[in-house]
Specification:
Blueprint: H1 14-17, H2 25-40, E1 45-49, H3 55-60, E2 68-72, H4 76-85, E3 94-96, H5 105-108, E4 114-120, H6 128-141, E5 142-153, H7 159-175, H8 180-187, H9 199-209, E6 213-220, E7 223-229
Helix pairs in contact: 7-8
Length: 232
Amino acid sequence: MANDNASVHPAHRYDAEIRHVIPFYDAIQAETLDLVRSIAGEPLLWVDTGSGTGALIERALPAFPRTQFVLADPSEAMLTQARARFAGQPSSKITILPPTPSEGLPALMPRIQAQVVTAMLCHHYHDPVGRLAAVRGCFEILAPGGVLIVFENIDCDSVRGREIGLHRWREFQLRQGRTLADVETHLARFGTELKPIRIAEHLALFQSVGFTTAELFWRAHMQAGFYALKPT
């Protein structure tokens, strides 16, 4: 891949560009923080996999002052941006791992017990086998009773629903000032580089890995948020 990460945006431009592509991006982050507080209070340890440049955790820092954060991402370029973002933070507060995908976390951190794992818009690049491994990796590093929060691009339950969803996604991006060529290039990734699955498939996947509670808690356009609880 010519780019330095799995998205279409170079790492140094990711934060500036993502809001032109993903509707309600700031709301997605806000909903994640609100759900963490609702389920986990102020967790001791929060792992953000597919962390990208660290924008979510930067937003979480003032809201969770006693939480230790671990950032993981397969892209070294994204992690370089994250290291610059958190250069002033002590290592006791922020740990940035070497480049690793979600499925590599248990081997990299075999004794970790996180109360929260977040995976924001990162697992939809996987085929079914890879996605299963990624979700299982998140499950294995969670403490009993811990919560996994996942946001993904999703597929629809019908062909017509997909057509409408992609049309709305196209119109959103055009309203943000993206060129038609850039928008069409992005949407052409749907079902190729992006491998979204339906809501029911997400819920079944979480349960197959071992989560006893799995719920949809947010949906808009072609994006959805889920949480899954590891049994105690």
